[in-house]
Amino acid sequence: MRRFYLNSIRIGVAVIASTGFGAAAQAAAGAPFLPHQAIYELSLVKSRGSTAIESARGRILYNFSGSACEGYTSDFRQVSELDSGEGKTTLSDLRSTSWEDATGKTYRFKIDTRMNNSDSGAVDGIAERTGDRISVKLKQPVAKTFMLDGSTVFPTEQIRRIIAAAREGKTILELSVYDGSDNGEKVFNTLTVIGKPISGDREIASPDPSTTHDKMKALTRWPVTVSYYDRDAKAKDGEQTPVYAMSFELYEDGVSRALVLDYNDFVISGKMGKFDVKDAKPCK
Questions:
Q1: Do 156 and 162 touch, CB atoms closer than 8 A?
Q2: For the chain, which terminal residue's Cβ has fewer other Cβ atoms within 10 angstroms, N or C?
Q3: Which of 68-72, 94-98, 103-107 has the weakest average pLDDT?
Q4: Residue 94 and residue 113 in contact, taking contact as beta carbons nearer than 8 Å
């Protein structure tokens, strides 16, 4: 369950990036990123490995707002309950708020977590890009300042680059990503695999509020899988296993649908149950 707890933090922050989930001003002259609220209903797809999960349920509530002028704010909450049988359940509650400017130079974040109704600590900090380096100042869990390589990107920039790569017809994208998760000091290497574009008018077997919304029907989306690797972990037998992987269909305006969260020992799906478009403030 410890792995589930840690990966919930990472997936929560990364999901923020993947659902508009922290997008940038505009990707490769495409559609502007859409302020919106989305709810995803979580359920167990399958269990594997040493952790036997009999059932899982939960919900993700996500709010995304802002503009290219004022930057983008993401508010996220994920509540998940896992049942491992014989009356043993694990309840996790993750809340995350982040702000990133449209140029990917500044990233502010605060992450609060609870496990079985007990406080599990908070992460609070700011990362600022200066030249070819990034300075990270943490307030919590401990006051600390450290530097990152300038090639590292924040969640907003990560999604901007995925959409730009998809538009260019690329199928593979590798990035180092910092999002403040875990203890606020982790950098993850990511491998993104991008599938063939899906036109908005294509019929699908399981529609949801995004595919039926008038604003979304004309937009292209791509099937995307992002695998996250611990940059500091050593590969075994020349191959490294991802900490977790996340699949979804990514619209060109930053909205995501059909989430699949792979925690290695088990897989959870996130079906969009509600989708509301928010008013966007024009740049002055």
A1: no
A2: C
A3: 68-72
A4: yes
Residue 253 carries which DSSP code?
T
Per the CB < 8 A criterion, the answer to whether 101 and 126 are in contact is no
Q: Within 13 Å, how many C-alpha atoms sit on residue 274's CB side?
A: 10
Can you point out the beta strands (E) in the chain?
36-47, 55-67, 71-83, 89-100, 106-115, 118-130, 133-140, 144-149, 172-177, 188-194, 221-230, 244-251, 256-262, 266-277
Q: What is the mean pLDDT of residues 242-251?
A: 92
Q: In Å, what is the CA distance from 174 to each residue of 53, 214, 225, 274?
A: 32, 33, 12, 32
| Rounded distance between C-alpha atoms, residue 108 and residue 134, angstroms | 13
Token representation of residue 238: 């020349």
Q: What whole-number distance in Å separates Cα of residue 63 and Cα of residue 52?
A: 33
Eight-state DSSP code of residue 68: T
Tens-place pLDDT, residues 18-32 = 444 434 334 434 567
Q: Are 64 and 35 in contact (CB under 8 A)?
A: yes
33 and 255 Cβ atoms separated by less than 8 Å: no
pLDDT by residue (tens digit) across 58-69? Answer: 999 999 988 888
* Mean pLDDT, range 163-181, rounded to an integer: 94
CB atoms within 10 A of CB 173: 18
What is the pLDDT, as a whole number, of residue 67? 80
Q: How far is CA 186 from the centre of its chain?
A: 15
